[in-house]
Amino acid sequence: MPKAAKTKVSKPTTKAIVEEACYYAEEAKGVSQVKILRFGAEQGYFNADDGRTKANVKKAIEGLVGNGRLIQTKQSFALAKEVRQEYDELAETTEEEVPVKKTPAKKKAAATPKTQSAPKKKSKK
After folding, report:
1. What percent of the chain is predicted at pLDDT more than 70?
2. Which residues fall in a compositionally biased region of kind Acidic residues (predicted)?
3. DSSP letter at 52?
């Protein structure tokens, strides 16, 4: 019997996860590699304790720093201003485009009075 084809779940790239982690970070100075790993684990993208994941994140960070999308200060990383502006604009456009549909509250049906059932007959022994 041939094996059933596994459905592949689409996940963002590691570079996209790193950028997201830096965007949603509250620290102005930047985010450490450990916090990026924790963010990805919290979002359910990967396992933070896996050595292969750490290597992939490190490689993604190096690529983003090389492209100028991330700025490295000591051991922390922050998004470049242009990239942060892209994310801000993207967030604004998605908020404007998605109208919130208000559904009218459903009215509860009037409670119907219960009819009394006939009393149970006692069985004779």
Report:
1. 73
2. 88-97
3. H
The total of other beta-carbon atoms located within 10 Å of residue 90's CB is 11
Question: Is the per-residue pLDDT at 115 higher than 70?
Answer: no
Residue 29 lies in a domain: yes
pLDDT digits (tens, 9 = 90+) for 73-94: 888 898 888 888 888 888 888 7
Instruction: Report DSSP letters for 2-45, one per residue.
Output: PPPPPPPPP---HHHHHHHHHHH---SS-EEHHHHHHHHHHTTS
Nearest to 77 by CA among 90, 60, 91, 89: 60
User: Is residue 114 in some structural domain?
Assistant: no
How many separate domains does the chain show? Answer: 1
Residue 51 within a domain: yes
